[in-house]
Amino acid sequence: MRFCRLESPSKWTRSSPSAPDPLDPGAAGFAHRGLHGPDAPENSLAAFAAALDAGAGIECDLRLTSDGRIVIFHDADALRLCGDPLAIGRSLLAELASLRLRGEPIPTLEDLFALVAGRVPLLLEIKIDEDIWRWAPALATALAGYRGPFGVMSFDPRIPRLLKANFPEVLRGLVVGADLSSFRRRLALSLASPQFVAVERTAVAQSWVQSLRRLMPVYSWTIRTSEQRAQAGVHADSLIWEADGRP
Fold this sequence. Notes:
Elements: E1 30-32, H1 45-54, E2 57-64, E3 70-72, H2 79-82, H3 93-96, H4 109-116, E4 122-126, H5 135-143, E5 150-154, H6 158-166, E6 171-176, H7 182-192, E7 196-200, H8 207-213, E8 218-223, H9 226-235, E9 238-241
Parallel strand pairs: 1-2, 1-9, 2-4, 4-5, 5-6, 6-7, 7-8, 8-9
Antiparallel strand pairs: 2-3
Helix pairs in contact: 1-4
């Protein structure tokens, strides 16, 4: 795989990069929840198809249904996106099948894999809903046979820990928010033992991030403007973007 090298404006001093990244999406970065907009809802197959057309990697959110199927959906319930209060984690996949994202069904992870077919790298963010013990068997089923580049990440450090124990061949990442205390961050990193990190944009220039970057790839989220892109591009290996943060 190529290693991402984003152009840096002369007013910034680029920090030291990590070793080559097996998930390198190139200069197009990762489209946050797919390339979504008026014609393509977030985390929809239309948004993922648009990201593919743009040559961008894809970042998306995973949730687990009550019958152990992995769907691509950000929120804990479907009210904001589908106008229905159904809780994703307490619903069967068959119950969710009737919901629509502006005319589209909620995609499963298998749907995404079939669409992408290894053409671009994927960042799969697991959303935990008191169901961590059910993720190992669900992942074993959903990931079987997919040969494209992907990494699995979460804010919850127990997920990359689970991956290390049960799926050592899967690239594992930790998502780190800017408001996490130094103590909790160090604890999370120790427990997660990540192979990459996704760091909130407002924290990406901090010294601890740059120390990590010498050890592993660092991605930055969510980039929404060209100015944010210029700044974060100095300190991160790849950017997770949407809206006017598009390259």
